[in-house]
């Protein structure tokens, strides 16, 4: 509970979040490059990366803006891509709901795939930590990711030239997510949930705006919870 | 792009606000209130219900190969999951996956 442990938990988060910069750097740089080529100025590129801070949604919005889609369509599509984060928010609540308003607001702003997944793995490993320490860990994980995200959006916007072609860098994002799955498979119900998630997401991958993933998520949560209830 | 500067900033501002509200939603509104056991039971499976589904299409149909399954990337994915599952060490899993991909690229 003391200040010094909270500080060390924050730094533990920073160390464990650091590997994700290999994803954040090429992804944010690519956004900066593509957005600049589409005609956005540096301030607008940084507006996206700082105010929205959600890669997939930023690319979706940019794509529709280039096609001159109506503003309402741009917003609805990009927000649909982000809807999974409402599920992240709900599942963080049992751990962080006791934090103060501004701390919860700060966590919400930084609630991205990587910080969410890493924090949940840590909270389930060490559930006895205080709320303050749990918030510190979350913010620690996201610190290197966010710094890389902001900086390399700017680099992409200023340099404006693309990243070297096929050196497999596109696969950095899948590899970091795949690395998180192993530690999540703690019990048989978790394995059932993961299998459901993969199957439903693949079957419904043709649905627009990430709605297939939302349905896969709901189905997998039900399968996991139901398996837990029956097996226990 | 035929959008005015004001329109671009309107999109950025509303998208930023909307995204924040989605992320804040439950964390903000429920806060410290107790949730029923069945809700908590479902929420325990949220990470494992979303992350595998998020990544599965990226593994099977990579954009870099025009959506065609690629043996190198599939091998790297398999190694990453196995090492992550066996060691529970995220960094070890990332490094093993990246090394597999590098090796597969070098061989092919």
Describe it for me?
The complex is a heterodimer of chains A (232) and B (108). With 232 residues, chain A is an all-alpha fold. In chain A, 78% of the residues lie in helices and 0% in strands. Chain A folds into two domains: 3-167, no CATH class; 185-232. Chain A has helices at 3-17, 21-37, 42-52, 55-66, 71-81, 84-96, 101-109, 113-125, 131-159, 172-184, 188-203, 211-231. In chain A, helix 6 packs parallel to helix 8 and helix 11 runs antiparallel to helix 12. The longest helix of chain A has 29 residues, at 131-159. Chain A is globular, with a radius of gyration of 19 Å. Chain B is an all-alpha fold and 108 residues long. Chain B has one domain (5-38, 46-107). Helices cover 76% and strands 0% of the residues of chain B. Chain B has five helices and no strands.
Indicate how many domains the architecture of chain A comprises: 2
Helix/strand-derived category of chain A reads: mainly alpha
Overall residue-averaged pLDDT value of chain A: 91
Structural class of chain B: mainly alpha
Strand elements of chain A, count? 0
How many domains of chain B? The number is 1
Intertermini distance of chain A: 33 Å
Radius of gyration computed on alpha carbons of chain B: 20 Å
Largest sheet of chain A, in brief, is: none
Total of DSSP H or I helical runs spanning 4+ residues of chain A:
12
């Amino acid at each position: 509970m003391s200040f010094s442990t909270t500080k060390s938990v924050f730094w533990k988060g920073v160390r464990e979040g650091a590997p994700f910069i290999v994803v954040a750097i090429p992804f944010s740089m690519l956004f900066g490059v593509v957005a600049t080529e589409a005609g956005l100025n540096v301030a607008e590129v940084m507006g996206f990366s700082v105010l929205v801070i959600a890669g997939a949604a930023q690319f979706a919005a940019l794509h529709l803006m280039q096609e001159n889609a109506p503003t309402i369509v741009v917003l609805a599509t990009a927000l649909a891509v982000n809807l999974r984060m409402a599920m992240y928010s709900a599942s963080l609540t049992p751990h962080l709901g006791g934090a103060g308003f501004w701390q919860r607001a700060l966590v919400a702003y930084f609630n991205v795939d990587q910080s969410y997944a890493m924090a949940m793995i840590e909270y389930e490993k060490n559930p006895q930590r205080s709320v303050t320490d749990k918030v510190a860990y979350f913010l620690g994980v996201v610190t290197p990711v966010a710094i890389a995200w902001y900086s390399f959006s700017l680099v992409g916007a200023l340099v404006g030239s693309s990243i070297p072609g096929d050196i497999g860098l596109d696969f950095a994002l899948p590899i970091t997510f795949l690395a998180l799955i192993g530690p999540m498979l703690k019990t048989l119900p978790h394995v059932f949930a993961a299998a459901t998630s993969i199957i439903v997401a693949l079957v419904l991958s043709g649905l627009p705006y990430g709605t297939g993933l939302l349905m896969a998520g709901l189905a997998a949560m039900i399968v996991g919870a139901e398996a837990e209830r029956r097996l226990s | 792009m035929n959008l005015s500067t004001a329109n671009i900033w309107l999109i950025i501002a509303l998208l930023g606000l909307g995204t924040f509200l989605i992320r804040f939603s439950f964390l903000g509104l429920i806060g410290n209130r107790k949730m029923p056991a069945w809700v908590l039971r479902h929420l325990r499976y949220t990470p494992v219900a979303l992350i595998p589904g998020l990544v599965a299409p990226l593994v099977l149909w990579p954009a870099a190969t025009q959506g065609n399954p690629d043996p190198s990337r599939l091998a790297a994915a398999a190694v990453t999951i196995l090492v992550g599952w066996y060691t529970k060490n995220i960094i070890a899993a990332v490094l093993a996956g990246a090394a597999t991909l590098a090796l597969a690229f070098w061989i092919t």
